[in-house]
Specification:
This protein is of the alpha/beta class and about 180 residues long. The chain has a single domain, classed as HUPs (Rossmann fold, 3-Layer(aba) Sandwich). About 50% of the residues lie in helices and about 15% in strands. The protein contains eight helices and six strands, in the order E-H-E-H-H-E-E-H-E-H-H-E-H-H. Helix 1 links the parallel strand 1 and strand 2. The longest helix is centred in the middle third of the chain and has 23 residues.
């Protein structure tokens, strides 16, 4: 048992975050804690683009889209919010790591994040959010790896990026010049 009163969990919809949502729900049930799925969002082009040409209409559209992504993630994790949990989903504007660390600010909070992919490319491209949370949070953090099936799918898709098909003479032929 974690003893947490609130369990804050990153809910981006990635395979790692879906696994983190399921894990956090189990912890919340065990501790009778409030589950707080959080989706962090930024405007397309980032905050700097929004500051150059602010638009209240676009901000509202972007926030509504973020809420839709959060509900989609919750549907993929559980088929909707579990009825046996006290949950308070939230959408916050900002970088995911900063938003999650700021949300997990109370005594007896627990922050749950998806750990992302494993492997050599992870150090170059992934896990920035989980690394940030582990380094900066003022509460306990649990980094949950994605399910084996999700990792297998990512590995197979990643290997296709480097897959090369042999060129046949027919594929190399150019159409006749007019």
């Amino acid at each position: 048992m974690s003893g947490a009163r609130r369990i804050i969990v990153g809910a981006s919809g990635s395979p790692g975050s879906l696994q983190a949502l399921r894990f956090a729900a189990d912890l919340a049930r065990d501790d009778d804690a409030t589950l707080i799925p959080v989706l962090a969002w930024l405007p397309p082009g980032g905050d700097q683009a929004d500051r150059r040409q602010p638009s209240l209409y676009l901000r509202r559209i972007w926030k509504e889209a973020a809420w839709q992504r959060l509900w989609d993630a919750l549907d993929r994790a559980w088929g909707g919010l579990p009825e046996d949990l006290t949950a308070a989903p939230t959408v916050q504007r900002g970088e995911a790591g900063h938003v999650l660390v700021a949300a997990a600010c109370r005594t007896r909070d627990l922050l749950v994040v998806g750990a992302g992919r494993r492997g050599a490319l992870r150090h170059l491209f992934g896990c920035r959010v989980s690394h940030y949370c582990l380094a900066h949070a003022h509460c306990p953090v649990v980094a949950v790896p994605p399910a084996d099936l999700a990792q297998e799918a990512v590995r197979r898709l990643g290997s296709r990026m480097f897959f090369r098909r042999a060129l046949s003479p027919g594929r190399m032929a150019m159409p006749p010049a007019g």
